[in-house]
Design a protein that fits this description.
Layout: H1 3-15, H2 42-45, H3 51-54, E1 62-63, E2 67-69, E3 75-77, E4 84-87, E5 92-95, E6 101-104, E7 107-117, E8 123-124, E9 131-139, E10 144-153, H4 158-166, E11 175-176, E12 193-198, E13 209-214, E14 218-220, H5 222-231, E15 248-250
Parallel strand pairs: 1-8, 2-15, 10-13, 10-14
Antiparallel strand pairs: 3-6, 4-5, 4-11, 5-7, 6-7, 7-9, 9-10, 12-13, 12-15
Bound molecules: zinc ion (ZN).
Amino acid sequence: MNRRHALKALAGLALCPVCAPAGFAAEGHHWSYEGEGGPAKWGDLDAANKVCTIGSQQSPIDIGTTVKSQLPPLKIKWGKSADTIVNNGHTIQLNFAEGSTLKLGDTTYKLLQVHFHRPSEHLIGGKNFPMEAHFVHRAESGALAVVGVLMATGKPNAAFSKVIATMPAKEGPAVKADAGFNPNALLPARQTYYRYPGSLTTPPCAEIVEWLLLTDSIQVAEADVASFAKLYPMNARPAQKDNRRYVLQSS
Ligand SMILES: [Zn+2]
């Protein structure tokens, strides 16, 4: 790894806390959503990514039959703004400073970042949505809880419009986020959810994620989805085998 790549790797660590434990792919083997570095090859790009191929609890999945369960409510306490916004070459991501949390049962997770996929990564009964937002939280133990929000087109959403208006057009360093972006505005009114054990949906695909996919979608402007698509027309990993995992559904 030459100096330029080393620096790039360091920048990657800072920008993508979720990717940090992974190590970095060998030179010339960068992951992507199609072609040489596409999802079917992720497991071969780096020894650290093997679980992308051989894992048994991979994400995303197609959610079909669910088991109605008494699940604890999501206690979401997020601040009213983000710290920085970045185009990291795979998605648009907003990073958060300390102070935003999710409590689930007895575990408290800190909100690290939110990023977007087009189309949605999770399918419901075989169908995808125009987009999906992932709010990535981490507990002291290192375990992750990701709150997924499915995004349909319809009424404009002011918070998402703010993301679109301020997202860097080119891959590059994080810049200050607009103070007017409020992450809470990307949540549906009702926060019932699907829950299943899974993985990161990007390399290294680590199976350390408690998936909390909200059952209710939000609406965003079709024009905003089109603007996102100009930067990222397709950044969704295909659905993975469920391997007989149960998907629990809160009521
Ligand atoms: Zn994601």
